[in-house]
Design brief:
Helix content: 25-40%
Largest sheet: 4 strands, mixed
CATH architecture of the largest domain: 2-Layer Sandwich
Number of domains: 2
Strand order of the largest sheet: 1-2-4-3
Radius of gyration: 21 Å
Shape: globular
Number of helices: 6
CATH superfamily of the largest domain: Metalloproteases ("zincins"), catalytic domain
CATH class of the largest domain: Alpha Beta
Structural class: alpha/beta
Strand content: 15-25%
Order of helices and strands: EEEEHHEEEEHEEEHHH
CATH topology of the largest domain: Zincin-like
């Protein structure tokens, strides 16, 4: 019988007066301890060899308190979905505006010269954040579905279904059953970034790895893939600040 992996252990760490949860993960292939923060910088994650002790994992996190502080300082401030906030849609800044109307949804007005594009939201002001989020998810799923279908046809593969979620550590995933899952937050990024993530996950339908054949397939059908990867490395964390 296969041995079940241990459930992650949870502890706490005080950093700069704030209490951060620490998730301790044991991994069979880990040869040393690795420290990182999740995408939202709300918890510390320590990955360690299976036989290492919980006490040493916590000590390791404490020894790296300076690094944790520096990473927390680099986290962009949250931008709630509220009246007057400016958020990017497909990489273009948009100002959120509310107008009093009992009926109506979300309407986008493209920017005039020297002005911001506008997202107008009708209905009760108390529901503005939810309406914006729902609209963004719908836009994201529509564009990701279109991109995935186009790449699946070009790469001569098939997928079974598409979903959009809000994962903390991945922009997309592909299951062995052909299910594609994406982060709806890709709608904030420039179109070529969303396009690359779709190409990346669809390519996994042909190669369930990151080997040379996989990257050759991505490069063949998505020439801007390296530009998109670099954008995500520099700006990806910012996408998690919107709607916080």
């Amino acid at each position: 019988m296969a041995k079940r992996p241990r459930a992650p252990d949870v502890a706490e760490l005080v950093v700069g007066g704030d209490v951060l949860p620490v998730t301790i993960k044991r991994h069979a292939r880990a040869r040393r301890m690795i420290l990182r923060l999740d995408r939202q910088a709300t918890r510390v994650i320590v990955t360690m060899p299976e036989r290492a002790s919980r006490r040493k994992a916590i000590e390791f996190a404490r020894m790296n308190e300076g690094w944790i502080k520096s990473r927390l300082c680099a986290v962009p401030p949250p931008v709630p979905f509220e009246r007057g906030a400016v958020i990017p849609v497909r990489g273009v800044p948009h100002e959120i505006r509310h107008f009093d109307a009992k009926r109506g949804g979300v309407c986008v007005s493209e920017r005039a010269p020297n002005s911001l594009s506008v997202i107008e939201v009708a209905g009760d002001l108390a529901h503005l954040g939810r309406r914006i989020r729902d609209w963004l998810k719908e836009e994201s799923k529509r564009e990701l579905a279109a991109a995935s279908l186009a790449y699946a046809e070009a790469m001569r593969v098939r997928f079974r279904k598409i979903s959009v979620r809000d994962p903390a550590s991945r922009w997309g995933s592909c299951s062995v059953k052909g299910h594609l899952s994406y982060s709806w937050r890709l709608i904030f990024a420039p179109p070529y970034v969303l396009d690359y993530v779709a190409a990346h996950e669809v390519a996994h339908l042909a190669h369930m790895n990151h080997g040379p054949k996989f990257w050759a397939l991505v490069a063949k059908h998505c020439p801007e893939f390296e530009k998109a990867r670099q954008w995500m490395k520099r700006h990806g964390r910012v996408l998690h600040s919107y709607g916080s």
